[in-house]
Amino acid sequence: MSASNPAAGGLRIGVLGVNFGWGPHAALETIISEIRRTVSGECRVVAFGSEYGRSLMDNVVDEWCEFDGSDYESLTRAAAEKNLDVALVTLEGFAARAFEAAGVRTVFVDLMPFLWHGADLAVPPLEVSRYLALRLPGLSPETLGWMRSIHNLTWIGAVVPLRPPDTARDSQGYAEGNRRAIITLGGMLGLATRDTTTYPALVLPGAVEALVESGFTSIVIAGNTSRAALDAVVAPYLGQAEFRLGPLTRAEYRGRIAESALCLSQPGLMSLLEASSCGTPLIRLPPQNVSGFQQAEIHRIGTGADTGVRWPSEVVDEEVVTRKARETEAAGNDYVYAAIADGLRRRRETTRLFVRTQLEKLIPECLALPPDIWTGLVEKVGTDGAKMAAEVVLDTADAVARA
To answer: Which of 93, 115, 148, 217 is the most exposed place for a label (fewest CB within 10 A)?
Structure first.
């Protein structure tokens, strides 16, 4: 099976993304779009589970199949029944093994190789047919050490669209009169939390206030939190700025980042990479989970920009996060989620002032930095991830056809 000549009956791809935020599903959407752009003939995409990503992936998925996130034997049976040529999985190692158990050669995309240590090292599927890992700066010797055990490892760049027409960087920055800003919260749902309102309620008041006071008059707040919660945050400022609130389509999201003079981002890796691919100045908001702390540091290393907002130590203690995360990612996340909830109950005003004060200093500093530093992250990581992943999926399917 080649890119120009799929097997008779077309190409059948099974896909699954872990239900943790939107990043795994945004990556799937980008890779599948590249596959569809590349391959000729019929290409049928069957998605399993991946509930958090349905709004992002509906335009590239042909069929949705239920998966409860834990019964991997049932996933194996379901995959076997679909007569798949190949499977593509982001971050869900046990699911990758389940596809392989069904006789489906599987491509596993590890967007966060830094995440696995201790008990969590049971997650990465070391013997999957193809293992693609994101080429991130600052990976520790510990991470690089366990990765030597991976069979068929390929390093890839950022999984971002290649030269999409809707993400050409706006030539005007803040100094030239661009008063557009975007706050990107990402998909805040996690494996152990369904709370999408606590973090925004605690962090956004200080952030919105700082943007308005800095002269921004058009502000997008993108995320999957409730409209009522966002309305309450922006209500005091409706006479001073226009707001666009709530989820965005993939194309609109990329376009809004590209046209903005400034991006404030809860540091999800895909958001950081997409902003970097657009060259948009970026301030990192306080992380809302363990991976967010690590991803914020990756962005700092990649850009050299110390443009990060910290939590008040009495709300989220980073030393405690680090200590808990050494046990497991889940233990670290449990602490962070509980600390943010407690902060909203008891330290709402303290946090608002703390965030606003930091941003009052960071916004002008950020906007004064040389424009070329903002592409530094993707320059270090590369932008070939979607293209390479698409080629590997097609090559893996081709190997099945030849077998």
So the answer is: 148
